[in-house]
Amino acid sequence: MKGLEIRDAHFPGRAPLDAYGDGGFRFAEMSHRGSLLCVPSGIYGWNLTTPAEFRLEAFDRVIEEQPDIEVLLVGTGPDLSPLSADLKGAFREAGILADPMSTGAAVRTYNVLLSEGRAVAAALLAVD
């Protein structure tokens, strides 16, 4: 008998986000507690909780999928927090327009751009 296998949270494919708040998100008839990274290859759990944790390594998956991402919406929690100059520069160099905004605004914008078939990704901090 095989031991318990623990995998990173992952939903293969793209899906609109149905709800956010209470520390998580709902999408594709599922719920996820914590932050999310939504990229073309799927929706992944993201272990960040505050904008202070934004480092380039946290966005590795976004950079890896760059040919399929033109716009990255960064949900910075209940309020807008600007991205550091280093992060903005790294995204610019990769050909990605990174747009920070509150998580609520990012969710709404993501859903609109996704429905239009745009090359969009989202990095979303969970909010209460």
Automatic annotation (TrEMBL):
It holds the Pfam family DUF498. InterPro entries: MTH938-like_sf, NDUFAF3/AAMDC. CDD domains: Mth938-like (cd00248). This is Mth938-like domain-containing protein. Signal peptide: none annotated.
